[in-house]
Amino acid sequence: MSDQKRHGSLALDIQGLVVEFHTLDGVVHAVNGLDLSIEQGTTLGLVGETGAGKTTTALSVLRLLAQPAGRIRAGSIRLDGEDLLAKSEQEMGKIRGKQVSMIFQDPMTSLNPVMTVERQIAEVIAHHTRLPERQAVEQARQMLETVGIPGERGSEYPHQFSGGMKQRVVIAMALACSPQLLIADEPTTALDVTIQAQVLEMMKQLRQTYQMSMLMITHDLGIVAETCDRVAVIYAGRIVEYGTLEDIFEHTLHPYTRGLFDSLPNLEDRTARLKPIPGLMPDPANLPEGCAFCTRCAYATDQCAQHRPERFYRTQEHYAECHRCRQICFEKGGSAVWE
Amino acid sequence: MGVTSTAPLLQVNHLKKYFKTPRGTLHAVDDVTFTLEAGRTLGVVGESGCGKSTMGRAILRLLEPTGGEVRFAGEDVSKLSPAQMRAMRTKMQMIFQDPFSSLDPRKSVGQTIAEPIRLHRLIRGKQERQARVLELMETVGLSERLVNAYPHELDGGRRQRIGIARALAVNPKFIVCDEPVSALDVSIQAQILNLMKDLQEKIGLTYLFITHDLSVVNHFSDDIMVMYLGRLVEKAPSEDLFSHPTHPYTKALLSAIPIPKLHRETKRILLKGEITSPIDPPNACRFANRCPHATDQCRQQEPPLRERAPGHFVACFNQ
């Protein structure tokens, strides 16, 4: 089956994902028809602001959405060709940690404070391999060495480690069963910048050693530039622009992506005034009919308010969901490859 | 911005703040000296635990300093009586990091902004006070209809605007901004930074801007000081610091910033070694353990802060 083959080359393939949360205040539309795919061995950056649906997307892949409020309404999620939404809870238990792992943002709250770190890592190993505890702990210590922590520190508790060390422990735990896909949700946001540099460097090396694919969730375009091969920009639960690193950074299409870049202070021209995006992201419980960005967009027309935009493809791969893209690109002199 | 005056607005001399802990004395701020002129912004950068927030609070006497003096417009703040200090607080204010926990959840926007006006008895009449609240809301870009809203109804950016309006309510000259934008998304962060800059130009505010975000501090400050484990290790005009970082710690810090640009040759300095404990620190350079250039002298003596170029101060033996 050619369809099967196509899925086979993708580490992760999400199509048309719709996730809702049913709350007392109404239905929150967190993810609204999201497409996302990661080729084997590559890193995809998922970039967006608070509430855009980044973490919800990640939790949907692991099937860890808050129950019973969170519901996957539509769409498919395939991990290495396998349909995750068709799996039973028991089957998911075998997949989490083994085929796909996740690193959470805050290392302080993702470790168990009353368990030594080696036992926490050994727990994952024992769950997936049925190794006897002693051997599992031995492997856990080796994992600690891999992430740059002396093995004998494994018998210590999380509070005895610094923030950067704790995040290394979390990474060791995520990689303990060599998953094919690693989801990293803002893995360095809670860390200081010099420690962040160390952790990112280590993750880059480990990704090569383990030949992993990675979904890097972040709001920091600097981290994207350093770690990712492709980039997906998410806004109000949809991918509004997707392309290679070069496409996104040097041939930016979507006005929202442009706005993200313009909001950042420029290290080379420190006096340049910042150009923030006016307004706020729409309330996910009350999304506009047309383009979700139209209320903040300087280029919006009546059409934008009424109809959801189609994708505009600049190249075979690079697209943006925007009615005005073609025009905007000409205005800013983007005479690049137009078909 | 270029308001020049003869005496600096703020003079901090040998400021110290120690905390007693079961394991010894923690030197959170250790012998920090600097001056800040009216109308300018001094950025304070450093990593968590370097003492930057403690210093901000010690300057405002929200924490009682252990030693040293803080002179505001020539007056020694650390010697003021509680009543005098209360009056002084109309000149010195603070904007806090977390717009979620720094606002009283049971007070409306209007009540929150009116509170300092009421406490300092600046405007007695209720109607005049309300008019002033609305004026302040307009200044910080909050729509008038939000006057009766409560913090939980508002997003982080709007809450931070309330925090700014509250600080401005007493017409301060000087504001300590403790990580005012680090809890905000980039697009909102830019809105708040622009607002703070406009306010500075309009009312001639002086800022002490504490942050861990180096690209923000570079954009926002005239001068920058770098702190490491309670010590001031380098201070220079922003452009100078970024073009000629001198202290090895500053160099490592600047090289670690992820830059949102492609095809950049980055020579990243990755620091190794354990961080020295700030509890009863040895008489040595506190960065020596992680410093690639450390010598015996660095491990036996504390390097003094010296002026290497006009306005550029560095505490390092080897640079």
Descriptive keywords:
A: alpha/beta, eight-stranded mixed β-sheet, four-stranded antiparallel β-sheet, disordered N terminus, disordered C terminus, B: alpha/beta, Rossmann fold, 10 helices
Plain-language structure description:
The complex is a heterodimer of chains A (339) and B (319). Chain A is α/β, with parallel strands linked by helices. Chain A contains twelve helices and twelve strands. An eight-stranded mixed beta sheet of chain A has the order 6-7-8-3-9-10-12-11, with helices on both faces. In chain A, strand 4 (70-79) and strand 5 (82-83) form a beta hairpin. In chain A, helix 4 (117-129) packs parallel to helix 6 and helix 6 packs parallel to helix 7. The longest helix of chain A has 18 residues, at 193-210. Chain A is globular. By secondary structure, chain B is α/β, with parallel strands linked by helices. Chain B has a domain at 8-91 and 173-185 and 202-314: P-loop containing nucleotide triphosphate hydrolases (Rossmann fold). Chain B has ten helices and twelve strands. An eight-stranded mixed beta sheet of chain B has the order 6-7-8-3-9-10-12-11, sandwiched between helices. In chain B, strands 2-1-4-5 form a four-stranded antiparallel beta sheet. The chains are: A alpha/beta (339), B alpha/beta (319). Chains A and B meet through helix 7, helix 8, helix 9 and helix 10 of A and helix 6, helix 7, helix 8 and helix 9 of B.
